[in-house]
């Protein structure tokens, strides 16, 4: 048995087996080198100075290019003529293009997202029927984290063809909260109490340009709709919304506002 194994091993080494061994070594070492190169690039001062959205996208491109070079090197070691490889790729180009039509669309979408920047990593957006905070923008996909801690991946091609609402693009955000109250309620007193609650809320913005207001915004046979409007920092929106809603509800109870006295509208 040992003699047979020795003959097989010598045959492999004498033939293409040695090239295969070299190719495997180059592949293994190459992957290690690529990881080291990417890590070094990440730590450079110029790279760290870039926006996180751009760095994430550039890392994807650099990694892809390095692996392409590695694959070409491995093919060369195996003795495959590059002219033949190029000819095969060219002849199969149309078929591959059709098969990867969706992937190419996502790639183009990723490039457009980085160029036009409708949102950045860390922004909270609503797009393609999904709402959440942008965690990463790669060559083909954008990753979101929803408010209930769900990770969602959206193809970049889909995002480029969707309406995108960026909740954190501006430094402040308007918050509208509406309540329905009984028709015989004292409107002036109700509005006064709502404004007072918003002024005293910890998370609403203060200043003349951010003065809260309350006004009649509609009604029905059951009651009137009074809207409270104030301004908040986007990151504080949901906490401020809860704070003001609870404060107004408690204040209504203190002044004897009658049913329905329920919150009916909250913008997202």
Structural account:
With 268 residues, the protein is of the alpha+beta class. The chain has three domains: 2-99, Helix Hairpins (Orthogonal Bundle), CATH 1.10.287; 109-166, SH3 type barrels, CATH 2.30.30; 173-266, Alpha-Beta Plaits (2-Layer Sandwich). 53% of the residues lie in helices and 21% in strands. It is built from nine helices and nine strands. The strands form two sheets. It has a five-stranded antiparallel sheet. The chain has a four-stranded antiparallel sheet with strand order 7-8-6-9, with helices on one face. A hairpin with a 4-residue loop joins strand 7 (213-219) and strand 8 (224-232). The protein is elongated, with a radius of gyration of 31 Å.
Radius of gyration, taken over Cα atoms and rounded to an integer in Å: 31 Å
Shape: elongated
Largest sheet: 5 strands, antiparallel
By CATH, the architecture of the largest domain is named Orthogonal Bundle
The helix/strand series, from N terminus to C terminus, equals HHHHHHEEEEHEEHEEHE
Strand content: 15-25%
- Unreliable parts: none
Output the CATH class name of the largest domain: Mainly Alpha
Please state the structural category: alpha+beta
The tally of structural domains comes to 3
Give the N-to-C terminal Cα separation.
75 Å
Number of strands: 9
The average pLDDT is 83
CATH topology of the largest domain: Helix Hairpins
Biggest sheet strand order reads 4-3-2-1-5
Q: Helix fraction? A: 40-55%
Number of helical regions: 9
């Amino acid at each position: 048995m040992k003699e047979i194994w020795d003959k097989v091993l010598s045959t492999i080494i004498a033939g293409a087996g040695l090239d295969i061994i070299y190719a495997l070594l180059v592949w293994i070492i190459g992957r290690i080198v690529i990881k080291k190169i990417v890590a070094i690039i990440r730590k450079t001062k110029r790279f760290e100075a870039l926006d996180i959205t751009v760095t994430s996208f550039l890392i994807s491109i650099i990694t892809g290019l390095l692996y392409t070079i590695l694959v070409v090197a491995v093919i060369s070691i195996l003795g495959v003529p590059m002219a033949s490889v190029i000819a095969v790729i060219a002849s199969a180009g149309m078929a591959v293009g059709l098969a990867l039509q969706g992937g190419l669309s996502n790639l183009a979408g990723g490039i457009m997202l980085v160029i036009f920047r409708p949102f950045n990593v860390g922004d909270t957006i609503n797009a393609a029927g999904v709402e959440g905070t942008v965690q990463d923008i790669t060559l083909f996909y954008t990753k979101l984290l929803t408010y209930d801690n769900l990770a969602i991946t959206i193809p970049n091609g889909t995002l480029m063809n969707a309406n995108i609402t960026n909740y954190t693009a501006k430094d402040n955000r308007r918050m509208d909260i509406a309540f329905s109250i009984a028709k015989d309620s004292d409107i002036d007193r109700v509005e006064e109490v709502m404004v007072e609650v918003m002024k005293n809320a910890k998370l609403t913005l203060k200043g003349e340009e951010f003065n809260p207001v309350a006004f009649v915004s509609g009604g029905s046979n059951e009651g009137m709709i009074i809207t409270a409007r104030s301004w908040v920092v986007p990151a504080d929106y949901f906490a401020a919304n809860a704070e003001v809603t609870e404060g107004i509800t408690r204040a209504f109870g203190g002044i004897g506002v009658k049913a329905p006295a329920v919150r009916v509208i909250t913008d997202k």
